[in-house]
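Subject: complex prediction, re-run

Hi both,

The earlier run crashed halfway through, so I resubmitted it with identical inputs.
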Amino acid sequence: MGQQLFTIVQDGGVTTPRGFKAGGLHCGLKKTDRNDLGVIVCEVPAAAAAVYTTNLFQAAPLQVTRESLNEGRTLRAMLVNSGNANACTGAQGEADAREMQARMAEALGVSKNEVAVASTGVIGVLLKMDKVNAGIERLPSKLRDDAEGGEQFCKAILTTDLVKKVSCVSVTIDGQQVTIAGAAKGSGMIHPNMATMLGFVTTDAAIGSELLQEALREVTNLSFNMITVDGDTSTNDMLVAMASGLAGNRELTRSHPDYEAFFAGLRHVCQELAKMIARDGEGATKLIETSVVGAASDEAAQAIAKTIIGSSLVKSAVYGADANWGRIIAAVGRAGVPVNVNTVDIRLGDILVLEQSSPIAFDEDVALAYLKGDTIAIHVDLNMGSGSAVAWGCDLTYDYVRINAAYRS
Amino acid sequence: MGQQLFTIVQDGGVTTPRGFKAGGLHCGLKKTDRNDLGVIVCEVPAAAAAVYTTNLFQAAPLQVTRESLNEGRTLRAMLVNSGNANACTGAQGEADAREMQARMAEALGVSKNEVAVASTGVIGVLLKMDKVNAGIERLPSKLRDDAEGGEQFCKAILTTDLVKKVSCVSVTIDGQQVTIAGAAKGSGMIHPNMATMLGFVTTDAAIGSELLQEALREVTNLSFNMITVDGDTSTNDMLVAMASGLAGNRELTRSHPDYEAFFAGLRHVCQELAKMIARDGEGATKLIETSVVGAASDEAAQAIAKTIIGSSLVKSAVYGADANWGRIIAAVGRAGVPVNVNTVDIRLGDILVLEQSSPIAFDEDVALAYLKGDTIAIHVDLNMGSGSAVAWGCDLTYDYVRINAAYRS
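This time it finished cleanly. Structure:
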């Protein structure tokens, strides 16, 4: 996986790459006094890229951000509110998203197309714009280029999340140290397809927006698009990346000798964030990692890995530490891709439970002890070809139901 | 829906149609003394039809039954065990299914290809054939042609089901009273695709096996294939129909003036059974009925109805009596079919919550009172075309998780 190509930056965050400041505050959209408005600002125009939800009902801020990025390929700021998704809010919702963008641009002294806007929270309720506008006025005074600035931003984007989600690595390009950082939020309505819940990537690499867009798309397919919490694809999923170029490397191209290191670093950051989202899935107590090998193609392996990770029965069994591999094979069989029904091997961690599609006697106590851990690996080998994929999810618990039975109330 | 074409037979069951006996007993596959082996027997060779799961890993009894029905198109008996699915059990599992078939045939004095076999329960464990064989020996003495026989059979096919699932109607064909009855089981791993959990239909109509097969297939697509409990398609889904022909009507054809009545009756029986399965979904407290109209096609409407009914977030919200229509519109938007995002209406029962894709203010107290009922109707009008569909499901509750966290233990 190229781990040697990058170094993990402990305690790094979105303000670690050169040129970035961040901040957050409570403007009044959340009922408690938790942060609900945050911004990341770059001191120079940053090359920018974004991927969006495939849900047909895209929230207003996504439409506004997409439109702006189509006009110019640089960003100076990413503004986010939590507590209200500004989705299915009609013409007023779109006007509100545009107002957020324009006011933030004015407060920062940049052009409005250089401000991306994002929202997360309840669907179908108009934003309280008096509170949002007052918050935007105060935001510039909160900007810091240190860890505290990144921390306040990360708090501002959470909803039902229990923990902040940040990852940071450094890579060497042209002998220069380049940093790549990301922050994300997401806990429920997680079944990203071509995009994710809210994710924000900052880097000081010099890279054009076109190549950044391609890299972001490829990495998304190996990270955020391979997680599921509940099979529900949000109206608000968006991942935005900004590259300040202040690291001093020659501009990256696909043939640049260090492009592979940049890509590996970006992939690591996004996969870490994706796993953090899966582990912090609503009500979750465990991270489930499903790897599928020996498939006819990578696409087939992806379909199977995501079907397993999405199975309510598999998720419930993992919660109960029940080595119920029958539910895994049933998921393999309904994934909609070709499978040789006689050659499937299944392992739970290192424990072989099915070989060539026949049950293998295993020590139930050993399996129970393994399944009581907080990270559960499910390995499926189809023994058909060379296709492979990894997907991440979480267990299904009482708390998932409790949280979602009363989210809006 | 043609309700006037048939009459509901109160307290009718699989032994109500002329020519059928049924019975059940406890042979020892279930840990408690509940029935776990049952059979329906016809006194004459009955025209037969069946549909099977689309899961690639089909259980051994399905393979055996399919093979037998391919050789001859009549059945004298349908034998079922619960407590063990006999799925993913390799060559020994297939031999066991054949032995069950052969011993039941011998005990009844019929040929083995005239016995369908079915199993439901845990996957990947070999059947205790000594117990099954002893049970088969005793089964003929348990056969009765009254309601008690049907009752004992129905009990024998249940696993995590809480209630028996039976439906019976009568229709008039050629002036003769024809009865159609069905029994089913299913509570978890319910997301049938071209077939269902175990379902058994008996009728005394005179109808050839070919037309019966066509009717069964068409009706399945309007009933069992439109329910979901948890999105997991079982390895054992099977629906079998037997027609004794003892009602005395002229053999049905598609052009027979009363074929429509027979079809309407069969559809009613299967839809009632499907709704009973959805309402009795593992842990469920409510039946959810989703109707989609105004779609570009019936197929598009089906995709949307099943996406809504399968959404964990929608299911959790219904459990919590939360009028969270944002989750419904999010499901509409990710169903993978074309939708005009500006023209969607949504109603919860009679309460309009979204019109032309814009939120409508509604009385939360009235909505809460409605959502606290035990049957929740979700109506979606896409205002695009004339496609429509109805799907059924249930809420997602703490008990679903409890049941499935420890099913195998």
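The longest strand of chain A covers residues 37-52.

- K.
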